[in-house]
Amino acid sequence: MLIEKTVSGFIEELASNSPAPGGGSAAALAGSLGAALSIMVCNFTEGKPKFSGVQDEISQIKQKGLALKNDLTDYIDADTNAFDEVMKAYKLPKDTDAEKTLRSEKIQEATIGASLPPLKVAESCVEVLKLSLRVLTIGNPNTACDAAVSGVTAYAGFQGAIFNVKINLSSIKDETFLQNVRDKILVLQDEADKTNQLILDRAREVIG
Amino acid sequence: MLIEKTVSGFIEELASNSPAPGGGSAAALAGSLGAALSIMVCNFTEGKPKFSGVQDEISQIKQKGLALKNDLTDYIDADTNAFDEVMKAYKLPKDTDAEKTLRSEKIQEATIGASLPPLKVAESCVEVLKLSLRVLTIGNPNTACDAAVSGVTAYAGFQGAIFNVKINLSSIKDETFLQNVRDKILVLQDEADKTNQLILDRAREVIG
């Protein structure tokens, strides 16, 4: 598993001349860093009398953050595994017409399968962005910088995941699936861009 | 060392209730992912007859990318170590006037020291952004998505590092140092924003 590699080993693997892991797994990792940093801010706010007015919300944010961190960390491997299925489908025999048809179907199936992990990563990163904005606003100001980095890493995870969804869409033929995903991307992109801008505005106020 | 932890272990450590690692190390890691992905694109372009016209530049980009990846990976730990020095300085005794003066000096020294790793990370991320833009433009189009994710992770690394420089500046008293760093930030921010925008424009053309 990729997440059991060392940090330096993962970076080496990413840089290597093998097609996976690539940008999809890196995007999931960036999102995981964002989730982890929002949790960190909760940990520095939780139980402190100074922030007694926000304890309930902080506790809810922490629970959501933990679930998002776990999901996003799982997607570091899930993205690479889904990509491997596409590579496998392309390697199927194509000597007879029957083989060609089967191969083509399997490539379609695997490519649709490969578009789902980054779509899920993009959705989770939008949720992380919302948490980043809240912890930057109500969390312990000593960790404002960590909250802001939570935001920028989650936004990078979002953007990277969307690139990966789109690259898969370019080889998918199912028009209904394509339209559904394109509609979803528009909604997510708008939400991500707006939340990211609010985080940057708030960071400028708090950090300078 | 943080980079010898597993990826999942690093994420846990980031989320934990200890002040370090925090956003500074996460920013350095985001930058490392960016450098690694630009190198990956070089590896898929190098030695391919189809891209014979760009082999010299790809080879130069790869060399620069490898150096930046190594530097940024080192800064994952260097950032946390420099932050630990600030924490140590704050824990110095402050019972007598002499102790107070010494403690205050050591805090200033350590805080200046802590602003340097993220400043170096920010500079390196700007260099990674330039490489991302070039590999997205001249590299193997099969890895366009990885080139684009290289860009967004490097930009997140840049923004995160700048937050960390600025938070340190707020407790530094040396006016000459402050002015030098503020001037440097302005130049870097402009370069990073412009290169990031060019990467996003190019990604839209290539990926959709």
From TrEMBL, chains A, B:
InterPro entries named among the record's database cross-references: Cyclodeamin/CycHdrlase, Formintransfe-cycloase-like_sf
Domain Cyclodeaminase/cyclohydrolase: 6-185
Keyword Hydrolase: yes
Keyword Hydrolase on entry: yes
Keywords assigned by UniProt, alphabetized: Hydrolase
Superkingdom of the source species: Bacteria
Pfam families (UniProt xref): FTCD_C (PF04961)
MF terms in GO: hydrolase activity
Protein name: Methenyl tetrahydrofolate cyclohydrolase
Organism field: Desulfosporosinus youngiae DSM 17734
